Amino acid sequence: ILMSLLLIATIFTWYSLFTPKPLPVNVSRDSRWFTTQPASTCQRAENMVFIKTHKTGSTSLHCIFCRYGYANKLSFVFSTRNTINGHIRKENLNQSIILPPIGGIVNSSSKYNILTGHVSYKRETINSFMEANPIYVTILREPAAQVESHMNFFRHRKQVMASMQAFLKNPRTPGDAESRNNQLREFGLSFESTLNETTVNETIMRLDQEFDLVLILEYFDESLILLKNLLCWGFENIQYLAQNQRTTRETITDTFRHN
Ligand SMILES: *[C@@H]1O[C@H](CO)[C@@H](O)[C@H](O)[C@H]1NC(C)=O
Ligand SMILES: *[C@@H]1O[C@H](CO)[C@@H](O)[C@H](O)[C@H]1NC(C)=O
Ligand SMILES: *[C@@H]1O[C@H](CO)[C@@H](O)[C@H](O)[C@H]1NC(C)=O
Ligand SMILES: *[C@@H]1O[C@H](CO)[C@@H](O)[C@H](O)[C@H]1NC(C)=O
Ligand SMILES: *[C@@H]1O[C@H](CO)[C@@H](O)[C@H](O)[C@H]1NC(C)=O
C-alpha cells in the first residue's frame, strides 16, 4: 500500500510539473499560424517572398525555401548579374536583370513563385513580377547580437566600435552607418529616416501589417513551426542544417548593448 501511495504521489507530482500552463499572453493573432486542421485540408503555398536580412540566420531559412522550390519545380527570382548566388541586393529592381522563369518568357510576361535572395523591399515592384498574392516573410534578430555578428562578418569591427563611440557623442551623425539600424534599413528606410522615431514607429507598424510572418532567430525552431502552418507545409519541408554559422563570437557587454 505504501508503495502504491508513493507511486501515485510521484505520478501526481510529475503530472502537475509537466502539464503545460496556459500562455500568459493572447497570441492568437492570425488563425493561419495556429491551424489545427490536417495538412490535407489547406492549400500548400507556392508563391512566397522572403526578404533576406543580414546576419540573422537567414541563410538557413533561404536554404529551406530553395529546397522546397527546387523539389516542386518552382520559378525563382535570381539576378543575371550575380553569378555566385543570384542575389539582387541593392541593384535597381527591374525585370530585365532577372533570369527568365521555368518555361521561359511567355507573351513578354514572366511570373515567379519564389523570391528568396537579398533584395531591397519594394513591395509594388516585387508584386509586379510575382505570381498572385505571394506570402511575405522575413527574419529578425535581437539588435545587439545582430550588430556584433554584422561587424565581425564584414570585418568592420574597428569602424563600428569607432562609430559606437561617435554615436555616444552625437547620435545623429549619419557617418559610419554600416552596421547601425541595418535591420530596419533592409526594408527600404534610408539611414536618415531611421533617426526619426516617428518614422521608425510608423514603419514598424506598417511592416507588421504587410508581412504575413516575421521569424525571430532567437526562436528559430518555434518560428519554423509557425511558418510550416502558414504555408501548409509538412515537417519534412522545414528540416534544416544551420548554415553560415561561426564557431567563435564576441562577448557583448551591457554598455555595448545599451548604446
Ligand atoms: C484573444 O484574441 C481573440 C481574437 O482577437 C479574442 O477573441 C479573445 O477575446 C482574446 N482573449 C483574451 C483572453 O484576451
Ligand atoms: C529596366 O531596364 C531596362 C533596360 O535597362 C530599361 O529600358 C527600363 O526602362 C527599366 N525599367 C524600369 C522600370 O526601371
Ligand atoms: C500568348 O498570346 C497568344 C496570342 O495573343 C495567345 O494565343 C496565347 O494564348 C498566349 N499565351 C499565354 C500563355 O497567355
Ligand atoms: C515609438 O514607440 C515606442 C514604443 O512603443 C514609444 O515608447 C515611443 O514613445 C514612440 N515614439 C514616438 C515618437 O511616437
Ligand atoms: C519625422 O517624421 C514625421 C512623420 O513622417 C514628420 O512629420 C516629422 O516632421 C519628422 N521629424 C523630423 C525632425 O524630421
Structure description:
There is one protein chain. The chain is α/β, with parallel strands linked by helices and 259 residues long. The chain has a single domain (46-247), classed as 3-Layer(aba) Sandwich (Rossmann fold), CATH 3.40.50. It is built from nine helices and four strands. The protein has helices at residues 2-18, 58-71, 123-129, 143-153, 157-169, 182-185, 197-210, 220-231, 254-258; strands spanning 48-51, 114-115, 135-140, 213-216. The chain has a four-stranded parallel β-sheet with strand order 2-1-3-4, with helices on one face. Strand 1 (48-51), helix 2 (58-71) and strand 2 form a beta-alpha-beta unit. Residues 23-29 have low confidence and may be disordered. The protein binds 2-acetamido-2-deoxy-beta-D-glucopyranose (5 copies). One 2-acetamido-2-deoxy-beta-D-glucopyranose (NAG) binds at residues 106-107. Residues 1-18 form the signal peptide.
Major β-sheet annotation = 4 strands, parallel
Total number of strands: 4
* Classification by helices and strands: alpha/beta
Number of domains: 1
User: Which CATH architecture?
Assistant: 3-Layer(aba) Sandwich
CATH topology: Rossmann fold
Determine the mean pLDDT. 80
| Order of H and E elements | HEHEHEHHHHEHH
- Beta-strand percentage range: 5-15%
Estimated helix fraction:
25-40%
InterPro entries: Gal-3-0_sulfotransfrase, P-loop_NTPase
Subcellular location: Golgi apparatus membrane
Signal peptide: 1-18
Family: Belongs to the galactose-3-O-sulfotransferase family.
